[in-house]
Amino acid sequence: MRKSRPPASVEFTTSNMSAAISSLVSYGNDSDSENESESNTSSDNVDPMDPDAMAHLKPLPCGQSMSLTVLNSAPEVAVKESVETGTHLDPSLKEVTHNPTFETLFAPEFGPMNPYKTQQMAAPRNMLSGYAEPAHVNDFMFEQQRRTFSTFGYALDPSVDTHQVSSTGFIGAVDEAEKNKGLTVFESGHKKSEKRKKIKGGDAEEIDNFLGPWAKYADEKDLAKPSEEEKKELDEILAKRQKKGRNEEDAPAEEKTVLHVKDMYDYQGRSYLHAPQDVGTNLRSDNIPDKCYLPKKQIHVWSGHTKGVSAIRLFPSSGHLLLSSSMDCKIKLWEVYNERRCVRTFIGHSKAVRDICFNNSGTQFLSAAYDRYLKLWDSETGQCISRFTNRKVPYCVKFNPDEDKQSLFVAGMSDKKIVQWDSRTGEVVQEYDRHLGAVNTITFVDENRRFVSTSDDKSLRVWEWDIPVDFKYIAEPSMHSMPAVTLSPNGKWLACQSMDNQILIFGAQNRFRLNKKKIFKGHMVAGYACQVDFSPDMSYVVSGDADGKLNIWDWKTTKLYHRIKAHDKVCISALWHPHETSKVITCGWDGQIKLWD
């Protein structure tokens, strides 16, 4: 329905009537020439005597009261409402504050198309991923098609009427669907293969010829021989294996030794194993220093190893010599006092040396290396006395400290066993096989009647000597692997370097309980077996760490007292000299051994 503007009303009175007439006349005069000519011709045609023709120019008759005249002077215009079907709604609106009609909601969108809209975006969507038509699928049917698709790679096309099964009715691997004739997983087309036929076994009455259920299959082959090609391949593989085996059997490297000092014996015929008596401390006494102090500065560097140093050991009781093993496959013996020279180098391993251990007198020592050999050396002459192997990598080695058992030693192996050898016969005399991971440390306790072992299985086991069953097993869920263990000088405590960056203290007498009051923290060792040590008077605990620092804790308060940057790489071991108040020896993976005082 078309709406027009409300009529503009004009009120005329007698007083201004004449003004209105004159304005109408002037309106006619102001028009253009064409209009003028038209008006002239029209006025010529009008009869001047016709009263109706001039009625609009005459004044209205005056009366007592004037009536209102309504004049509609607005032109007819096609208005907005007539064009638009309803109230316009922005399609991007998420909320409407009034109730729109159906026509308004579903009216077409106005305006030009967005030229940048992709075909995917322009497509009608009723959800984020597209347009979903409501459809009902039986749970079983859905599962059947899903499994068929995951197994064979095809499924029925849900948009096609399923009654007309054809090649177009599948999606996915259509070729596979045609081959399987559209079978689903629940309609397996494979028929059961016929049972293999057995040779008939004769009559049950004949005992000798009756085969019964033990009869062979008709197509059974008794002997399987490889073809000629297969035989060639097998022979090659076997030859390779034998070669490998030979290489490993040939592995024991040739043992050599180099003496670095001019004279092996002094004027009295004493070798370098004799403890010096002119160094200011009595190296032969069993008395420990009364009070120990913190080492402050580096006073010497022993350099000679070309790769990282893995372990250092002081000469038993006197500590005047230092034995070091390295990843450059060499073992070196150094002087701790006087000129601090390298005395002798022992060469005899083909791979990195992992651990070393002196016997009680220091005349011999054992070395364990990654070439799977344990070797017994003479400290004085440098001669290799004997070698031992069980084809596994030894991770740690220890002589039995009892004087009457100096020919026996134990080694923790990579195959989870602790193996006990007799160095006189070269034979394995005992195996302790209870650990669940490679054995990292062996420490003798309780007057050498027992020893403690730790392993990659994060446990600590205590063994009686020569009894291959552990009598104590310590493993907590919170425990970590402890690849370095040291017995305190008074024999009461075991310091264990734990892989959660702390040093744990276990009692070394009877109970082997964890001392929860003594836990030393503040260093970073995770992943490295940094050796711990005690000061001789039991007032300090020292350890290296992964950053190459030497850490010193107070034993009583467990406070970290001092930290020295000792090495560029990992500081793998720290030893406090048993006769000195403040001398500490450290070694690191930078190949250097340092003396601190």
From TrEMBL:
Compartment(s): Nucleus
InterPro entries documented for this protein: PRPF17, WD40_repeat_CS, WD40_rpt
Top-level taxonomic group: Eukaryota
One cellular-component annotation, GO: catalytic step 2 spliceosome
Any single biological process term in GO: mRNA splicing, via spliceosome
Classification via SMART domains: WD40 (SM00320)
Main localization category: nucleus
Spans annotated as Disordered: 24-55
Keywords, ordered alphabetically: mRNA processing, mRNA splicing, Nucleus, Repeat, Spliceosome, WD repeat
WD repeat locations: 302-336, 346-387, 432-464, 532-563, 564-597
Protein name per its UniProtKB record: Pre-mRNA-processing factor 17
Organism encoding this protein: Solea senegalensis
